[in-house]
Amino acid sequence: MFRFIPREDAGSPEAPRPDAPPSLSHRRSRAFARDKLTNVKTRDDALALLHEFTKGDSLRKHALAVEQAMKACARKYAPDEDPVRWGICGLLHDFDYEAYPNADQHPWVGSKILEERGFDADLRQAILGHAPYTNIPRETLMAKALFACDELCGFLTACALVQPGKTLAEVKPASVKKKLKDKAFARTVSRDDIYNGVKELGVDLEEHIAFVREAMLEISHEIGV
Q: How far apart are CA 94 and CA 100, in angstroms?
């Protein structure tokens, strides 16, 4: 980080003239701030990247579900942070999976692409950490929230699709908690990730299920449940 360090001159410092041009350090500071602003990635940037690498409807809908859950988590757990940025983290967490599905590729290849496209380091670190086999520590709240929401969003979708009307509105949090114990149901969803995710985030399992369900319901028409 650039910091302005005043020069030590002999005698009392002279106050700057009102019409004096900005100092070199001040100009550098403004340039640094401007660069940070121009490097901020938008939700449109993220969605375009998702569509570039992910063509399948189900994976796109999963990305939207996790995005929505992450925005809700940001408002609840980190009200001083930008929920859109947290949402982008959710939107892009699996964007490379369709093209690079192997464990030695995903999410490593995706992280490199994100770096090349200008997405920030904390976001990339959170995405790397959502896959336990990377052994990347989840040190930020954003990283912990992503881990706690990813598999659960998939499991909630699976629970919705076996309801008579195939809707999430029919799904009860208590029944979701019970279905987690049925290893034959939605067998590709990692129960360990869900259990460890809520533990790391420091929340009750059934409460988190209800919380994520409510978030997903807000975009149920977009994610098909």
A: 10
For residue range 152-167, list pLDDT tens digits in order: 999 999 999 999 999 9
Which of helix, strand or coil describes residue 6?
Answer: coil
User: Above 50 in pLDDT, residue 125?
Assistant: yes
Q: Report yes or no: 119 and 40 within 8 Å, Cβ to Cβ.
A: no
Dist CA 70 CA 63 (whole Å): 10
List the domains of the chain with CATH numbers: 43-223 (1.10.3210)
* Residue 126, token pair as written in the block: 């959170």
* CA torsion, ordered 92, 146, 192, 183, to nearest 10 deg: -60
Neighbour-count burial for 56-70, b at 16+ CB within 10 Å, e otherwise = eeebbbbbbbbbbbb
pTM of the model: 0.82
DSSP label of 12? S
Cα–Cα distance measured from residue 127 to residue 85, given in angstroms and rounded to the nearest whole number: 12
User: Which is nearest to 177 in space by CA: 213, 212, 155, 206?
Assistant: 206
Q: Which of 150, 141, 154, 159 is nearest to 193 (CA)?
A: 150
